[in-house]
Amino acid sequence: MSTLTAPPPISTENEKNPWLAAEARFDEAAMRLRLDDGLRKVLRSPAREITVNIPVQLDDGRLEVFTGYRVQHSIARGPAKGGIRFAPDVTLDEVRALASWMTWKCAVVNIPFGGGKGGVICDPNLLSDAELEKLTRRYAAEIIDFIGPERDVPAPDVNTNEKVMAWIMDTYSMHARHTVTAVVTGKPLSLGGSRGRLEATGRGCMMVTLKALDRFHLTPETCRVVIQGYGNVGGMAARLMAAKGFRIIGVIEFDGAVYNPRGIDIPALAAHRKETGSIAGFSGGEDMDREEAMFLECDVLLPAATENVITSANAARLRCQILCEGANGPTTPLADEILAEKRIFVIPDILANAGGVTVSYFEWVQDRQGFFWNERLVNQRLEEIMHESFDAVVQYAQTHNVNNRIAAYMLALDRVAFAIKLRGIYA
Ligand code: GLU
């Protein structure tokens, strides 16, 4: 019997547990789809959860052991797919939730992957480059039997990047005795990476935001945006959206927040951060309290950092018309109810940030074909997929009279359940 029993109801006590949040959305979508109990059990249980303890010799000679996970939630529609994060607060519940979100995300954009996620409990800021490389390679070696172009294809996530992907690709290839570029995505361009991959998540957020603007009779020029998180997703979204004419009035990062009602000069902010190491003290805007900046009046709020920034404690204070979830799981289920009452148009994470994994799919295809596309083609195909997926989710929401998040889950569950039914259960 599965050890994953029905989850407890969501309360203010447990709303920040990402696995419970994922389960709550899953349950609602499954109930509305009238999925039978057996299929629900299959879809809610991660197919495989791997825990590894990773010994690393630190630069000062000490031996340290780090714990890492790789969860493969589903391989029903193709190889597991999803990033690896390095962070001190990684938990198995979090990785599990993120893996299931990858299954639903890949199904929403209809690419032939299942879902997976990895995480290592560590603080990469406290590790030297050499230590980080040893940790990455040994983690890759520990999970090597479970990953591969046909099995499970990792990618970057919080605190990992193309350098980390290159190390994983090399470690895997050394064991395979030949170069296997398609084992990871988000690699450097010169090692089989795809053009446009680095920008893809932020670009996808912009593409779906542009679709949503039509519904509010807004144009980029009349649209005020606040971005929370200035890393790969938020930083790229800021750059691309500013170039498109959006007025970015607020940027919030872990070390400060900047506000300028006339619009922040994003290239100048990037230069300031490069020079000083922080967005604080930027002369092209006012410094602001980070928490308060989330509640600035704006048209689009784009959370692009980590989970649980919008909760039952603060959702009522949001003053945006559109919430575009660049991060995974930024909104708790209790906050969803408040957003619905406030009639905020939510572009849910499994749709909004799917641009990254979509271009990862393009990278995997290009690696396997050994034939590489130009950036125009990558972006054009990305746009087709983001637009079609946005329309499909909004249509589903209308047809079934549910919010966009539940619509996205229903669409995804339906596709994954269909694949499982067609394949049947191997015994
Ligand atoms: N980590 C990204 C995500 O959460 C990308 C995953 C991928 O490209 O496989 O969607």
Walk me through what this model shows:
This protein is an alpha/beta fold and 427 residues long. Among the domains are: 46-183, 3-Layer(aba) Sandwich (Rossmann fold), CATH 3.40.50.10860; 200-352, Rossmann fold (3-Layer(aba) Sandwich). It is built from 14 helices and twelve strands. It has a seven-stranded mixed beta sheet with strand order 9-8-7-6-10-11-12. The chain has a five-stranded mixed beta sheet with strand order 1-2-4-3-5. β3 (80-87), α3 (92-108) and β4 form a beta-alpha-beta unit. The longest helix has 26 residues, at 375-400. The chain is globular, with a radius of gyration of 21 Å. The model has no long low-confidence stretch (mean pLDDT 97). Glutamic acid is lined by residues 81-83, 155, 157, 185-186, 328, 353, 356-357, 360.
The geometry reads as: globular
**Class by alpha and beta content:** alpha/beta
The CATH topology of the domain at 200-352 is given as Rossmann fold
Counted by DSSP, the helix tally is 14
Q: Rg, please?
A: 21 Å
| The CATH fourth-level homologous superfamily of the domain at 200-352 | NAD(P)-binding Rossmann-like Domain
Q: What multimeric state do the chains show?
A: single chain
Tally of strands? 12
CATH architecture of the domain at 200-352: 3-Layer(aba) Sandwich
Mean pLDDT: 97
Question: Main traits of this protein?
Answer:
Rossmann fold; binds glutamic acid; alpha/beta; globular; 427 residues; 14 helices
Summarize the structure.
The protein is α/β, with parallel strands linked by helices and 427 residues long.
